[in-house]
Design goal:
The two termini are 22 Å apart. The chain contains three helices and four strands; from the N terminus they run βαββααβ. The protein has helices at residues 31-40, 79-82, 97-104; strands at residues 14-16, 43-50, 56-58, 110-114.
Length: 129
């Protein structure tokens, strides 16, 4: 059975990983990208995964290398450690899901993609869900 999307998701575009522009200093899955989406009236798709200490953070990749100057796995760090890592040389850092929910505050629709055991194709623990 197909369940239709709620009307709020059909009124405006959905900004994939926020309304980001890497060349303009507004990286994907950042508070800046989410602010830009809210200002444009767009819904937001974002990626959530767990840190080593079990906190929900907003970041697509399971490794830090592509989006930061740091290296290693998200799971090797606590949320507090990740909050200090800057995204692509900007002042943005890796936000927690709580940070994003507080920023959005129900103003636009959110489509949350769970990244649990990225690219492993094995059963998940269900903790994040």
């Amino acid at each position: 059975m197909r369940i239709p999307l709620p009307p709020a998701f059909l009124r405006a575009p959905i900004a994939h990983r926020g309304y980001h522009d890497h060349t303009g200093g507004c990286p994907e899955n950042s508070l800046s990208a989410f602010r830009a989406a809210i200002e444009a009236g767009y819904g937001i798709e974002l990626d959530v995964q767990l840190t080593g200490d079990g906190q929900a953070i907003v970041f697509h990749d399971d490794q830090l290398d592509r989006m930061t100057e740091a290296t290693g796995s998200i799971l090797a760090h606590s949320a507090a450690e990740l909050a200090k890592i800057r995204l692509l040389g900007t002042d943005d850092t890796i936000p927690t899901l709580a940070d994003v929910l507080a920023l959005v505050a129900g103003r636009v629709p959110l489509l949350i993609e769970i990244k649990d055991l990225f690219d492993t194709m094995v059963p998940t623990s269900g903790r994040l869900e």
